[in-house]
Amino acid sequence: MSLGEFLLVAVLALPAVGAVLVAVTPRDRVARLVGTAVAALTLVGAVLLVFGDHGWFGYGPAPAVQPWHQLDLPWVSGLDLRFHLGVDGISWPLVVLTALLTLLCCGYTLWRVPAGGSGRALVALLLVVEVGILGTFLALDLVLFFAFFEVVLLPMYAIIAGWGGADRRRAARKFALYTLLGSVLLLVGVYVVVAAAGTADIVALTGGAGLSRGTQLAAFTLLGLAFAVKAPLWPLHSWLPDAHTQAPTVGSVILAGVLLKMGTYGLIRVAVGVAPEGARWAAPVLGVLAVAAILIGSLVCLAQDELKRLIAYSSVGHMGFVLLGVATLTATGIQAALIGNIAHGVITGLLFFLAGAVKDRTHTGALAELSGLRETAPRLAGLLGFAAVASLGLPGLAGFWGEAFAVFAAVRRGGPLWTTLAVLAAVGGALTAAYFLRLLRQVTHGRPSPAVGRLAPGLAGAELTAWTPLVLLALAVGLAPTLVLGLATGPVDALVGVLR
Fold first, then answer.
1. C-alpha to C-alpha distance for 437 and 94, rounded to whole angstroms
2. Under DSSP, is residue 110 helix (H, G, I), strand (E, B) or coil?
3. 283-292, pLDDT tens digit by residue?
4. Would you state the pLDDT for residue 105?
């Protein structure tokens, strides 16, 4: 076994074994320490996947997927299914982001465990969720992809229902029902592709693999709807605000930071890659839905009066920019989607950490009851201001590139429809700035409210430890977007090559 194959196995095996170890460790704090250590080792393995003779710029038109490292073993021989894992410049940044956010969330539980259950059980569930998300990003077999895609459902349901807010069970049921709908659509879409092509191998399938136009249209419709539920993309987004509002802080961070990216990644890697004719056929519809999500999400945010719900609805708009980039089916647009995914994961993960800190201290999320934060807790207010301006797309921070490139890609696509969509998306970007500035005015300015007036000015060391990497990443990706885009140039160009 080569080093790359070993790392692929280790990145999945470590959190799986770690979840079992955490579950059987009798002492709660020791179990949380074990889980955090396992998450740290997983992050090391994920980072090391970047090394090797992977030829970042050696991509050609066929095959479109050329993994840096891959492991291809028989899985179910009778059905010709294989345990096929691989990583490239499209998936690696998401793998690292998943491992990083899981480590930060596990480490955060060493300081604060939300009410509702033991910290040991929460950390074990976080590690199981990590297995599912990492497996989704690494799978190069459609059936294996589906299996990992489904691993996430039950543990995330348990996290929301077990450690969430007062209305947590209803929010968890809504999350589960929507996700099950997406799962059924995904299963049927996978069956359509595998039955028609005779293989589940994503490498071989990318580019259409001889699938008829009718098969590709049907497959893209099913797969696109399935991934739209998970992303979530408007109008299949209504489970998201409730889930975010009721989930504990670490659940919201994982949910917004990487779980949503399973949908957008699947849209690029599977739906567009496997059914390019279907993608070309649906592109105008996807563009219209993307801009609708941007505008509607922004307008709803302007009317929100609850902190976590506002941040949750902002995700609908940000995912709209990601979808707009994908819908253009251009290299610039797909690059915009990829860096938009990473930026949203980093910045919104930080926003939910900060929103959780505010809510834990004040015991309220109502914006009207949170005024004057900078007077009593200036450090917390400053970090909230940084995360907000990063999310609204300030140049020099990570949120800028995905939005700007998506609009630019739509303009470059040309024609009355795409030019109109670009203009409306730019208007949506201005509305994004409006609702985040409104948020900062209501929460950080003015006379301190009774809930805010009793806050201590300091921040806990565990909070700074969890938040600092996200602040630094928001700066690094904003100042040097090539950290993400440079890795993805080859695979994106190859993918666009098979779309033509």
1. 29
2. coil
3. 999 999 999 9
4. 93
Look up residue 226 and give its two tokens.
């399935």
Tell me how many degrees the CA angle 21-27-30 measures, rounded to the nearest 5.
65
* Contacting residues for 248 by C-beta, under 8 A, at least 6 apart: 114, 116, 122, 159, 163, 164, 356
Phi-psi region of 210 (alpha: psi -120 to 50; beta: other; left: phi over 0): left
CA neighbor of 379 nearest in space, from 295, 441, 468, 246 = 468
Residue at 46: amino acid letter: A
Q: Which pair of structure tokens corresponds to residue 258?
A: 């990487």
Short-list 21, 42, 43, CA closest to 31 = 21
Q: For the chain, give the number of residues.
A: 500
Task: Kindly state the helix (H) or strand (E) to which residue 3 belongs, with its residue range.
Answer: helix 3-24
Cα separation of 260 and 95, whole Å? Answer: 13
* Residues whose CB is less than 8 angstroms from the CB of residue 203 and which lie 6 or more positions away in sequence, other chains included: 63, 65, 67, 84, 86, 140
pLDDT tens for 68-117 read: 888 888 887 777 778 889 898 888 999 999 999 999 999 998 888 887 77
The predicted structure's pLDDT at residue 58: 41
Mean residue pLDDT of the chain comes to 88
Token digits of residue 311: 């941040």
Please give the residue that has the higher pLDDT: either 68 or 423.
423
**Full-model pTM:** 0.92
- Give the pLDDT confidence of 254-265 residue by residue, as tens digits: 988 888 899 899
* Helices marked H in 304-377: 307-327, 331-362, 373-376
Nearest partner of 408 among 398, 394, 418, 393, judged by Cα? 418
pLDDT of residue 64: 65
Taking the C-alpha atoms of residue 445 and residue 439, their distance in angstroms, rounded to an integer, is 10
Owner of token pair 């209504």: 238
Measuring CA to CA, which residue among 186, 309, 187 is closest to residue 239?
Answer: 309
Check whether 267 has a pLDDT greater than 60: yes
DSSP string, 200-215: -BHHHHTT-TT--HHH
- Residue 87 three-state SS: strand
